[in-house]
Structures are given as structure tokens and as C-alpha cells.
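Need C-alpha cells for this chain, all 114 residues.
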Amino acid sequence: VQLVESGGGLVQPGGSLRLSCVLSESISSFNIVGWYRRTPGGLRDLVATITNNGYTNYKDSVKGRFTISEDNVKDTVYLQMNSLKPEDTAVYYCSAYQRGNYYWGQGTQVTVSS
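Here are the C-alpha cells for all 114 residues:
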């Protein structure tokens, strides 16, 4: 299973970015897909997840600003990030869970700075 992220970059505070993650297998074959991030301090946090029945879960600090969605035709999961803050700066990783196994992408850097 391969996950390929894209969409990271440098953005000013208050700006927006959309991350994409293309899966090499049908997205419907995974129980949960989602996004995690590793901050400059080294901690890895869950950002948002979506189950195969559409249930979403978000880290408290991103609720109302970030939206996770998926496209079952393109086998792609998205993370729309609005009202970005400097504390959102991190490497963002796509993750997918299937039959007891977690799969990870290579990560994409998001930097929020003026």
C-alpha cells in the first residue's frame, strides 16, 4: 500500500492550504484514513480522521478550521486547512488503517509564517 501526499507549503497566518493523499488501493477497503502531524518539537498528533462510513474526528484545536474529506473515485483523502496559525506548522502525514495494519505516507511540510 502506498500513500502519496501533496499540497504542503509556506503560507501566511490566516491563509489556507489543501493537502491531498492518493492511495494505491481503493479507499473503501480501509477502515479509517486520516491525517497526523509531527511538530518541530517532535510530537505526533492526530489531526483528523474519517471512517469508511463517513464518521469524522478532529483534534480540538483544528475543529472549525480544518475539514477532512475523501473522494472514492479518485481514492484520495483531503485535508482543507483554513485560518492557519503558526502553531499548525508541522510535517503532515497521511495514514490509512486496514486489517490491523497502519500505512503511512512520506509526509508534507506545512509552514505557517509571516
